[in-house]
Amino acid sequence: MRDHPDAEVLLSVLGLDSPATRMQVLEAAQQLFEQDGYAATSMAAIASEAGVSLKTVYLAFETKSGLLRALWHVLLHRPAAPQKPRNEFVGPTG
């Protein structure tokens, strides 16, 4: 879809050029993949969970495997959450 000359215009009109919309779909997919498993999760369920149309999901990611690849990319490149400082063990005094 993105290779089509009018694809970027169409995605823009549908609001899919917005990173927030794509993240909304990816977060819904992650939740459902964790909850139900990849094989049991349909693109329709992801669309419903994300609050977007099924067409929107397919226009943004084309296939479920494409959506999964995008999710992996986001998760692999997400900055690590700051960790709480660990208390250093200080042995017995005296």
Word description of this protein:
The protein has 94 residues and is mostly helical. It has a single domain, classed as Tetracycline Repressor, domain 2 (Orthogonal Bundle), CATH 1.10.357.10. It is 59% helix and 0% strand. The chain has five helices and no strands. Helix 2 crosses helix 3 (43-50) and helix 2 crosses helix 5 (64-77). The radius of gyration is 19 Å and the shape is elongated. It starts with 6 loop residues before the first helix and ends in a 17-residue tail after the last helix.
Quick overview:
The chain has about 90 residues and is mainly α. The protein has helices spanning about 5-15, 20-35, 45-50, 55-60, 65-75. The protein starts with 6 loop residues before the first helix and ends in a 17-residue tail after the last helix.
Return the CATH topology.
Tetracycline Repressor, domain 2
Q: How would you spell out the order of helices and strands?
A: HHHHH
Low-confidence stretches: none
Looking at this structure, what is the CATH superfamily?
Answer: Tetracycline Repressor, domain 2
